[in-house]
């Protein structure tokens, strides 16, 4: 049964784009021809034209009514059919023609609101491998992927998609499994370890021993999940139909009453004419289409009216982590060097070698070194070792970067690196030179700058529960959830588990799901409203979603929800006011004071009023949104860029404190304190003072006055106080050529305190101020 029904639905969707505009053109033409004929005295021709327009509208109206009844709903079309038939029966052809035009207009608007992009998950299918390289004896042959059987030995070349599930046949494999887990960090699989289909070979070629056919493999399962989730999504009741459920019985009751009072069918038809729910047929679609148009102006594509209506009253938000709440691009958070080794040298060696690597962590290290303006040396004989990292010659010395095996009697400083990585949920890239461990680079995927503000806006817009789903480990997932104040987090989730979680949440509430990767496509399809971060080229998730963000800005989710809530509210208001006026007119018609033609004209007046009101959804509301002038936005980008560079140097303050704690009387500690003071005087404090005098006054207007920046100005004062205190300590130490024992306790408190204050202050500015700027310009 499902296949014929699907074919009929596809055929209907194919006819709809041209049928409804044609119906509107025909009924409008019939009405105008009749008006012209009536004006010149050809009443017979006028009646014929109006009758034809009415008759043309009855046929599709009957079909729409039958379809609604077949689906178990008494839609707004039933009253339209009764009124159209009634006007023909009592020869009120003008009224019938007016109703026909209103009905056709409403259906055309509704069709525009529901013009939806294909949900066939074309991108998922395009990503699926079609061929595999199979060993046959000593030869290698290319075969269709559906010919691969369990036990076969395949060769997976660099850059190829793993065609089927299996395990590494020998050596090691480096895989980009973002399509499966959403995580941007590559994973290494050793000999005998399992490999899932759909991942991309990000390293050298490796052998794959097949454990499952293509149909039984992981990637095929993802495609099936997305299809099933879309097919099994529960049907929703449109806003107009919910109102029609009680409006219809009331209209029929009044029509029957009119017939009894007047003793004529004309009175009943007059009631049905003014009862024709044009506020539902017109005002609701106009408000919905206006909301969709408003959303498109801010880079949010809402595929149909149902999605906008559901988005407007959603109460649960489900978020992916990587690429949605976080940036999806690892960054260097710290460089830790072995004793007597310069951290800048560690970074320079690592970045010089990593220039030859396509690994996402290597790209982050190189980018960080270039921002520090380090001079990088082109490496020689560089090669990537799966499961280890890079090795090569830099400045005539052999350098290794990556997951190096630590010696059994490892240095004590490495314990601090391991502890820091665990606490910060960071990845470690160890750096060795000539076989000696020199340092480590810590990397992590940072939180999006606009994430905290966006989630606060979403709660304000009506979301009462916020949940995170991620394929990442529990530790970093919980940290992100804690910072953002999420209600629940599900970590280490497979695509199938994500779908199950979304379905569980959707059973108890109207849900939105926000994601950006192909692995999110099934979950997006399962949610009441799926929202895809479409700017990153994750076409599969975009195809499966109801809402697509065309820019890489999380705050657009809050914009979309605010617009949807306002548009839905205007639609409800327009429908309620319009139906209230219609009920009054129905009462007048029921006692015989309003004939059908006059009732149709009165209904047109009501329609104009509610449509004008519905068009307010085009303007939108700025409540909850903060806009800044372009000149202020330029300032925000300038100071954000400066602060990012300062953040990369903040470790200097903590490193100095560590050195003062370990060797307070050494000349090295005094030199480090002098270097820190120079950093504060020459870079940090001037930056903070410029913010105070240039940036804060500029953004005060957008934030509602100078009081909004008062607490941050107080932070500037505290930063300046602590900086001057460090300067006083340096002056005292220089007078004795060493840091005195009586200075240590206060100096350590000042240094560590300043480091903590600056990290907090930078985070607050990024969240409260810099997030106001267009992040698309940051790239």
TrEMBL record:
Q: Which GO terms describe its molecular function?
A: ATP binding; ATP hydrolysis activity; ATPase-coupled monoatomic cation transmembrane transporter activity; cadmium ion transmembrane transporter activity; metal ion binding
Q: What is its main location?
A: membrane
Q: What subcellular compartments does it reside in? A: Cell membrane
Domain of life here? Answer: Bacteria
Q: Where are the transmembrane segments?
A: 21-42, 48-70, 243-261, 267-289, 570-594
Quote the SUPFAM superfamilies the UniProt record gives: Calcium ATPase, transduction domain A, Calcium ATPase, transmembrane domain M, HAD-like
Q: Does the keyword Glycoprotein apply?
A: no
Keywords in UniProt for this one? ATP-binding, Cell membrane, Membrane, Metal-binding, Nucleotide-binding, Translocase, Transmembrane, Transmembrane helix
Q: List each copy of the P-type ATPase A domain by range.
A: 127-226
Q: Which residues form the Hemerythrin-like domain?
A: 636-773
The UniProt entry lists membrane topology as:
Multi-pass membrane protein
Q: Which Pfam families match?
A: E1-E2_ATPase, Hemerythrin, Hydrolase
Which family does the record assign? Belongs to the cation transport ATPase (P-type) (TC 3.A.3) family. Type IB subfamily.
Query: Mind telling me what this protein is named?
Result: Heavy metal translocating P-type ATPase
Q: Organism source for this protein?
A: Saccharopolyspora elongata
Supply the source organism's classification: Bacteria, Bacillati, Actinomycetota, Actinomycetes, Pseudonocardiales
């Amino acid at each position: 049964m499902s296949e014929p029904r699907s074919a009929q639905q596809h055929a209907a969707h194919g006819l709809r784009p041209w049928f409804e505009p044609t119906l509107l053109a025909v009924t409008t033409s019939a009405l105008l021809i009749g008006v012209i004929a009536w004006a010149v005295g050809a009443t017979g021709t006028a009646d014929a034209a109006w009758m034809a327009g009415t008759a043309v509208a009855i046929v599709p109206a009957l079909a729409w009514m039958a379809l609604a009844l077949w689906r178990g709903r008494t839609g707004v079309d039933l009253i339209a059919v009764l009124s159209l038939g009634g006007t023909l029966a009592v020869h009120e052809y003008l009224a019938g023609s007016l109703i026909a035009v209103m009905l056709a207009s409403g259906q055309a608007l509704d069709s525009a609101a529901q013009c939806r992009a294909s949900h066939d998950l074309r991108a998922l299918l395009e990503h699926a491998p079609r061929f595999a390289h199979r060993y046959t004896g000593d030869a290698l042959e290319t075969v269709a992927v559906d010919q691969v059987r369990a036990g076969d030995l395949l060769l997976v070349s660099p850059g190829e998609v793993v065609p089927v599930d299996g395990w590494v046949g020998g050596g090691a494999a480096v895989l980009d499994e973002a399509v499966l887990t959403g995580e941007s960090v590559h994973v290494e699989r050793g000999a005998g370890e399992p490999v899932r289909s759909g991942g991309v070979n990000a390293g050298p070629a490796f052998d794959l021993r097949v454990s499952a056919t293509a149909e039984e493999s992981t990637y095929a399962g993802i495609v099936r999940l997305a299809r099933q989730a879309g097919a099994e999504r529960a049907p929703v009741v449109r806003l107009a139909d919910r109102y029609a459920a009680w409006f219809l019985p009331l209209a029929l009751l009044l029509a029957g009453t009119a017939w009894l009072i007047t003793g004529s069918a004309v009175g009943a038809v007059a009631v049905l004419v003014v009862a024709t729910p044009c506020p539902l047929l017109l005002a609701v679609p106009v408000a919905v289409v206006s909301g969709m148009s408003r959303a498109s102006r801010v880079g949010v594509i809402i595929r149909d009216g149902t999605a906008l209506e559901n988005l407007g009253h959603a109460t649960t938000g489900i978020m992916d982590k990587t690429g949605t709440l976080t940036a999806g691009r690892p960054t260097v958070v710290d460089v830790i060097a072995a004793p007597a080794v310069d951290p800048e040298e560690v970074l320079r060696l690592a970045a010089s070698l990593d220039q030859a690597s396509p690994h996402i962590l290597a790209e982050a290290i190189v980018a960080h070194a270039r921002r520090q303006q380090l001079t990088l040396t082109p490496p020689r004989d560089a090669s990537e070792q799966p499961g280890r990292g890079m090795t090569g010659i830099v400045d005539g010395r052999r350098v290794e970067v990556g997951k190096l095996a630590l010696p059994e009697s490892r240095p004590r400083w490495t314990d601090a690196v391991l502890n820091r990585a665990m606490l910060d949920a960071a990845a470690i890239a160890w750096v060795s030179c000539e076989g000696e461990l020199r340092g480590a680079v810590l990397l992590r995927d940072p939180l999006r700058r606009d994430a905290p503000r966006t989630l606060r806006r979403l709660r304000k817009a009506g979301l009462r529960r916020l949940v995170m789903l991620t394929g990442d480990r529990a530790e970093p997932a919980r940290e992100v959830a804690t910072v953002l104040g999420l209600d629940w987090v599900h970590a280490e989730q497979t695509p199938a588990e994500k779908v199950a979680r979304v379905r569980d949440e959707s059973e108890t509430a109207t849900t939105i799901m926000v994601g950006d990767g192909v692995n999110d496509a099934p979950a997006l399809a399962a949610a009441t409203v799926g929202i895809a971060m479409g700017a990153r080229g994750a076409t599969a998730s975009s195809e499966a979603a109801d809402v697509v963000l065309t820019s890489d800005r999380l705050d657009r989710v809050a914009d979309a929800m605010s617009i949807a809530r306002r548009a839905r509210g205007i639609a409800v208001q327009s429908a309620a006011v319009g139906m209230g006026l219609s009920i009054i007119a129905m009462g007048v018609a029921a006692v015989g004071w309003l004939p059908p033609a006059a009732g149709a004209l009165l209904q047109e007046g009501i329609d104009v009023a509610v449509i004008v009101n519905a068009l307010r959804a085009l303007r939108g509301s700025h409540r909850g949104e903060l806009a800044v002038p372009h000149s202020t936005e330029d300032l925000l980008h300038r100071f954000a860029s400066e602060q990012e560079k300062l953040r990369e140097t903040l470790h200097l303050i903590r490193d100095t404190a560590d050195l003062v704690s370990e060797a307070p009387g050494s000349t090295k500690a005094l030199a480090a304190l002098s270097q820190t003071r120079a950093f504060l005087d020459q870079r940090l404090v001037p930056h903070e003072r410029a913010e105070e005098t240039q940036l804060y006054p500029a953004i005060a207007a957008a934030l509602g006055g100078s009081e909004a920046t008062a607490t941050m100005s107080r932070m500037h004062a505290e930063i300046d106080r602590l900086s001057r205190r460090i300067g006083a300590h340096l002056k005292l130490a220089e007078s004795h050529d060493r840091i005195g024992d009586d200075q240590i306790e206060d100096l350590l408190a000042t240094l560590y305190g300043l480091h903590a204050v600056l990290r907090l202050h930078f985070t607050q500015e990024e969240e409260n101020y810099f997030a106001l700027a267009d992040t698309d310009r940051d790239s």
